[in-house]
Amino acid sequence: MRLIRRIEDYPLLTIIILTAVMLLPSLGELKVTIMEARNFISAREMLMHDNWIMTTMNEVARYQKPPLPTWLTALAGLIFGIEQVWALRLPTVIMVALLGIYVHLFSKEFVGRRLGLINGLIAITSFYVFAIIFEAPWDIYAHTFMLIGIYHFYKALSEPLGKRMIYAVFFLACSFLSKGPIAVYALLLPFIFAYCWVYQRNMDVVKKIAVFILGGVAIGSWWFIYVRLADAETFMQVATQETSNWTSYQVKPIYYYWSFFTQSGMWTIPALMSLIYPLMVRRVENRKAYQFSFIWTLGAVVLLSLVPEKKSRYLMPVLIPLAMNTGFYIHYLLGKSHASFSKKEMVPIIVHYGILAGVFILTPIAAFVLVDSDALPVTFENLVLCITIWGFGILTLMGIIRKDFYNSFYWSVFSFVLLLSLLLPLFNRLQHKNPNFKSIKGLNKQVQVENTPMFYWDRLSPEMIWEYGGSIPKLNNNSQNIEFPINDKFGILLTDKENFDIALVKEKYNVTLKNRYDLNVASPDARRYRKRLVTYYYLLEKK
Questions:
Q1: Nearest-angstrom CA–CA distance, 171 and 58
Q2: Sheet containing 509-518: which strands, arranged edge to edge?
Q3: CA distance 86 to 68
Q4: What share of the chain is helix, strand, coil (3-state, %, to 5)?
């Protein structure tokens, strides 16, 4: 169709618009996660204290993560307001768009603009690429910056040392300042292995690899070196704890990542098909490019599998070369004549597009029929959105019937983007099943007006500190001694009432339970309910 042809003429604009439509509507609505809260608190304290180097969380040194993502978060907060959650998430959405753009640009170097756009669209709509911005925001920065660095490094391989290598080193340094050596290990090393295996491995390439890695790591390490010199004891404690986690925390068997292709979400079946090497290597137009993306993908999975600590979200960097690899299978479908598909070849195609079409057609209908009107109000905008998704779903289904996989691909992408823009905020509203939900927002201003210092007793979740709107110092206590503040009246927040030594406290203070705050949106009997999101506010007044 003419619309799709025009879209292919403007690939970068297409990726930017689809990313914005997919993610911007939900930015301010989704619940702040624990990892986001840590980042937001550090960003808030950067702006409050003008402390951009020695990063803190709740006024305590926090060196677990490098500061670049927090700098960008703080900058967004400075421009739009530090309390605007949508603004603090905006940089991560920009990083998703940049990731899609550079998957397109990098792919175009090997397989042309059309397949480059396909790969870029697969990348931004892969599940953990967009989900990671909420679950672990540091990752999207580290791996996007690394991809940009890899792209410029690839261009520098065919040029004398110059501005391309400077760009490459700069973005590798940015990646290092986002999450240390993680992206170097999980994305860069398998890329280098795949490139040298498939394309070239002469001394000139080796020299440029050395310049790229050593230059980027050297520049990107300045923050680590500075903090190590400025606060050596704390830094070493953090470093020891972080490295010990690699072998003692969340340890999983080596085969834990074998289902890695399922993390691509809607592209699970095409991703699996693209990994069947004997099938694909005889069907692709550019065999070397396919071998390159195939080795890069599996190399990343192997390296990640060697680390004892494993989490599903750690697979996010694998989705970058996997998007390129999956694109070969999609491109094979688009370039083959309708009559030349065998019955066996049609099975995964029909299953893939059939499932997607069914989801796109049925979900908007089910949303209005089954969902409470408070969660999904019947507005003109929602009706237009649902009808559009339904229409794209019908077009996807018609493409399957006609074996028009070219249009079906694009209609399925458009449908998914619109569906996600509808479901992400809806999902957040549907989770609100907790009758005891009570936000701690407002308590900070209240105690300031009442001139009541606030402390916490045992532990306090980052989400609670973020919602509170300011720092809360810990009251030093143990079973034998409590360092009470000099104030006649002060407040205490505690998560576990059993750890609150009432008898010892009541010797000196009148203790009054003032409130209970519960940030859980899930009902108390649900598996997602977390006790750490509950805190009790006690007021202590000296006798």
A1: 30
A2: 454-456, 489-494, 534-542, 509-518
A3: 19
A4: 70, 5, 25
Q: At what angle do helices 405-430 and 11-23 cross, to 10 degrees?
A: 30
What is the number of residues in the chain? 543
Three-state helix/strand/coil letters over 29-72? CCCCCHHHHHHHHHHHHHHHHCCCCCCEECCEECCCCCCHHHHH
DSSP designation for 524:
T
Residues with Cβ within 8 Å of 220's Cβ and at least 6 positions away in sequence, in order, are: 172, 173, 174, 175, 176, 177
Those residues whose C-beta lies under 8 Å from the C-beta of residue 307, and which sit 6 or more positions away, are: 246, 314
Query: Could you give the CA distance from residue 66 to residue 220 in angstroms, rounded to a whole number?
Result: 10
Cα–Cα nearest to 17, from 30, 31, 28, 3: 3
DSSP 126: S
Rg over alpha carbons for the chain, rounded to the nearest Å, is 26
Strands 489-494 and 454-456, sheet pairing: parallel
Q: What is the pLDDT of residue 112?
A: 84
State the chain's maximal CA–CA distance in angstroms: 89
Calculate the alpha carbon distances from 153 to 100, 172, 192, 320, 321 in Å: 18, 10, 10, 16, 16
> Is the whole model's pTM more than 0.85, yes or no?
yes
Predicted confidence at residue 267, as pLDDT, reads 95
Query: Residue 242 is encoded by which pair of tokens?
Result: 């972080």
Q: What is the pLDDT of residues 358-396, one digit of tens each?
A: 888 888 777 766 566 555 666 667 777 778 888 888 888
Phi-psi region of 128 (alpha: psi -120 to 50; beta: other; left: phi over 0): alpha
C-alpha span between 183 and 321 (Å, rounded): 13
Q: Which residues of the chain have pLDDT under 50?
A: none
